[in-house]
Amino acid sequence: MKDFRVISETSQSLLRKVVNWHNDYIKTNSLKENAINFFNSPQLDYLCSNFTGVIVVMDFTNKTYLYTNSCCDEMFGYSREDFKNYGLELVLKILQPDHCAIFVNQVYPAVLGLYEKYAEQDLTKTLKVTYTNQVRVKDGTFKWMLHQVVVLETDEKGTPVLVLKTMSDIDEIKKDKYLDFIVSRKNNKGLYQNILKKSYLPAVEHSISISPREREILQLVSQGYSAKQISANLSISEHTVYTHKKNMLKKFNLNSSNELVKYASSQGLIA
Hints:
Blueprint: H1 4-28, H2 35-39, H3 42-48, E1 54-59, E2 64-68, H4 71-76, H5 80-94, H6 97-119, E3 127-136, E4 142-154, E5 160-169, E6 179-186, E7 192-200, H7 212-222, H8 227-234, H9 238-251, H10 257-266
Antiparallel strand pairs: 1-2, 1-5, 3-4, 3-6, 4-5, 6-7
């Protein structure tokens, strides 16, 4: 079984190959004039032929897919033409509903904000967006996917026009329920460094509130305070601190303080 690092590096290697080939292509061709030839090129299929996941090129302005490899049918049960005809609408349709809500309301706006920020410096091509979520596959079940996205083309203002994305199956190695979201930027040495990292946990089926005291304790836990320090800060016993933490873990069906802090942060329960 491949581990997460191998899958991520394999995906990143393919992204790099396609980006380099694309850059070589447009040196001698006008992409707008030769778009059909570019996206139907046997060379593009050849570059993607050994990749076991899905790779797509999306028109970021119109949210349509200009290219997908042949794995989309095998993995999702939708043809290349389906992806081209329905674009982002189809992708949102096959996302796990709770995950789709997080993507639409939190992840996607954050990505747009960073693209806008770095467009001012014409640096959007240095960004890589990585995130995980569950997608409905061909047999009707939901599987965890690793998505990696880079900008292929920008307009004269530095705004993304074409983006390149891979989707890899990580269902067998994904051990938690968090939707991870990372934005990294390529440095002068060609290495990616994280500039934003967040984790989201889909809301529990019924909204569960926390008391003002629990919120106080949770806020201090998130700041790295120990139970002894929280006890002194709030003038309560350490036993009371542990009891509140235990109750919150049970309330949200979580297993550790780290999971509790990540969940509370993702749901806006703490700052």
